[in-house]
């Protein structure tokens, strides 16, 4: 019976989630399996892989076949590299201590790369957020300018209408005041005529009456 390390699909539509299993190569993809070796979530960035390292390494050493995706996952997690180093021990090229030392260095380098990727993704996400905010602000400014440009003719028309109404009102006031001025001008000669027609006070009779009274007074004084 040939054993094959492969993936079993789980999860909802559009959100796949896989189990890494060792199964009979004749079994269906999502059928029975011999042992579950781990999980794989490709929807995360970076992808989340959690495996039983020792059990998976044991299946690889016993000659289990691997699907292409399973091989890529095991290479990423260092299972294939550790198997390569252990084969060097079997051939006498390496010691167990050297294998552990080399593998520890490989793990440290791998973890550093993963952390750099995570940091880079976080920075890119922050830059994208800032870029989106700036784009939104620019869009708001452009929209405001467009609205202002559309409203400008309306404002000018309103100003013109207000100016025209002011001119009309002023013209009406002038027209209304004109007859009054004309009437005043027409009444002015009539007043002058009334003044001319008024007889002057005759002071002569008063003087004459005074003179007439004076002789009478002198005659009376002579008789006495």
Explain what this protein looks like in three dimensions:
This protein is of the alpha+beta class and 224 residues long. The chain has a domain at 3-92: 2-Layer Sandwich (S16 Ribosomal Protein, Chain: A). It is built from five helices and five strands. It has helices at 53-61, 68-77, 79-91, 96-197, 204-223, and strands at residues 3-12, 15-24, 35-41, 48-51, 65-66. The longest helix has 102 residues, at 96-197.
Jot down its keywords.
single chain, 224 residues, alpha+beta, S16 Ribosomal Protein, Chain: A, five-stranded mixed beta sheet, 69% helix, disordered C terminus
Q: What's the structural blueprint in terms of helices and strands?
A:
Elements: E1 3-12, E2 15-24, E3 35-41, E4 48-51, H1 53-61, E5 65-66, H2 68-77, H3 79-91, H4 96-197, H5 204-223
Parallel strand pairs: 1-5
Antiparallel strand pairs: 1-2, 2-3, 3-4
Helix pairs in contact: 1-3, 3-4
